[in-house]
Amino acid sequence: MFALPTLLFFFATGAAARPTQQLPLSASRLALFGGDVPWNASRWLAVDDRVRGGSSQSHLTAIPGSNSALFSGILDTKTLGGAGFASQRAVPTSSVSWDLSAWDGIELVTVKEDGKRYALNLMSDLGPRRPDGRVESTIEYKYSFDSNPAGAGAARSIQWADFSAFYRGRPVPDASPIDPARIAAISIMCQSYFAQQDGPFELEISSVAAV
Ligand SMILES: *[C@@H]1O[C@H](CO)[C@@H](O)[C@H](O)[C@H]1NC(C)=O
Which residue positions does the secretion signal occupy (predicted)? Predict the structure, then answer.
């Protein structure tokens, strides 16, 4: 179900002025956020480098009058000497994890980009809570992409195999691949990639779907 819908989708959005959900593909996708599932900012929680002593910050807000959301914030790299990340994380509402095994990957559709490098992360487990209330780090399956410096949005179809395992920012080459039957959380992140970027960031997202 992946190859053909993806091609059609890119042709369809290529012709349009901006990405749209109004495509004849609703049967081949499962909306997670946006599209058929209105954005609800309360479902998103900031997971910024402040949990490690940094001072980056992020926000996710639903944009009134549209069905898109703004992921924005400020990436600070000075506090942690070059490192830094800001992210927003969401979990499923009606079960502990999403079973997306019927799908080939995740489609991320944006409306407006700012040229920064972003990552979409999937987690199989949420880390256990430590006595001090912090959540232990777990393996994150990450897909990084350079957004469009000219500002236009894009539709990206990301297959499961395109996600690579990281633990606390370091690659874990021998980790097992992501299990699409058990996705406990999804996050959108802006990170410094070792001080290659910092400062304000802003990504307008139309939808996240399994495709
Ligand atoms: C938005 O999400 C919050 C937190 O999960 C939930 O309590 C609330 O009912 C949701 N609102 C809507 C309109 O779905």
Answer: 1-17
> 121, 158 in Cβ contact below 8 A?
no
Q: 42 C-alpha to center of ligand 1: Å? A: 6
CATH numeric code, 3-210: 2.60.120.260
- Model pLDDT, residue 55: 95
User: For the residues 73-83, what does the mean pLDDT come to?
Assistant: 94
Residue 97: which of 186, 184, 33, 181 has the closest Cα?
A: 184
Among 36, 37, 43, residue to substitute to test ligand 1 (most atoms within 8 Å of Cβ):
43
How many whole angstroms from 44 Cα to the centroid of ligand 1?
10
Q: State phi, psi for 109 to the nearest 5 degrees.
A: -115, 125
Query: Which residues form the pocket of ligand 1, taking CB atoms under 6 Å from any ligand atom?
Result: 40, 42-43, 93
The tokens describing 45, both together, are 């929680």
Answer yes or no: are the C-beta atoms of 32 and 18 closer than 8 Å.
Answer: no
Q: Would the pLDDT of 133 be above 90?
A: no
